[in-house]
User: Fold these one by one.
Assistant:
Number 1:
Amino acid sequence: MNATRHLNGPTETEIESAAYQDECVFALEPSIHKLLQIAVEVGWDKDQVLFAIMLIIARQVTDNPRASDHLTRRNDLQ
């Protein structure tokens, strides 16, 4: 099965750079907005959907030490 991809992949930018993070945000943002729109259209409260998305992401970060370390290092650089 050949799935159609709706996201751009990363370029040759270094993974630790701010540009890499910017590319990732640019690639994911439309899909997250679409998810929010769909959830609201089927009856979910927008604020609750946003909170649920944050909880899901927080769980991913908490369960992934590498992600937690990456966020800590990135915050230290700012």
Number 2:
Amino acid sequence: MITPSISIITIVYNGLPFLKESVASVLKQEYQDWELLISDDGSTDGSREFLDTLSDSRITIYKQEKNLGIFGNLNFLFGKAKAPISQILCQDDYFLSNDSLTCIIEYWKTADKELGYVRFNHQLSNRKQLVKYQDEYIPPVIKSDESAILFYIFGNIPGNLSNVSVRTELIQKYGGFDQRLPFAGDFEFWRRLSRNVDMGVDKRMVVYVRRHPGVASNYLNLKGELLEQIGQIVSPLYNSLIQQYPEATGLLKILGTLNYDALSRDTGVKRFVQSRDKTYLKRLNNVSNRAPYAYRPFLRWILYFASFGGRMGRVFVAKRLIQKTNFQLAFNKQVKDKITR
């Protein structure tokens, strides 16, 4: 059996009409040594009928009889992938150009063996100042022993699943995506993986990540369902960082409150003003009251108002935190080494 150079992983649930464009973008690739693995998770919108029309021998289709969820379905497909490298391509998204796979393959040809996965498309246009700072600051390679502070500051750095290309074997080696975290399983796994391997960050745009009203991120956190799971990820991260950088405990707590309470508090306040629904705020308070990274309720409200709902001050605190932990020195050395090679 011939092993392809790259496996393309596509999970599907009621994917029409965008699924057709996604598959078409794979078939148009100049680089031809690929396999496309598609797993439908019980679609009822005609997606399965469309998949039945695909006849390319490099495409393998699985139809789940029981809904596995996003991360269960991803674990299933990664277990089927034959190539040493896999690229996730969600059903709504598509390769931007005919040489997208060529770009991905060329990246991996020159990647160090310690590098386990890469986030492409790292050109961030979000209006939030900390997101802009991430775009400017994040190094081209995040070393495993430096990843904790960056994930704490910037959150889920890989972003959308379709941004990510990964060494296939690492998914099973490090336990796969945690299906107990249906809203934050990707954040938890990339953080877990980054404790063991380096992560690449590349600004080249290879996949178009589509935004539309039906995209999962628009409905996964309507009632604050994501908050508890984020707390489960960030709390041990904070605890490990204060052990590693005890001199930065105050800054870590300020940024934790701003990042993971104040911004969400602003969402909860707006929803209460609009509909008098306290559900989101109640869930946030339950999480923050237990979280080691967040201040007590009175101070959380003070920071919320002082930061204008978390929109001001985060970049200042992040810069101070990076200086305090001496990460800047390692970053500067890494960039210098890259330039002088």
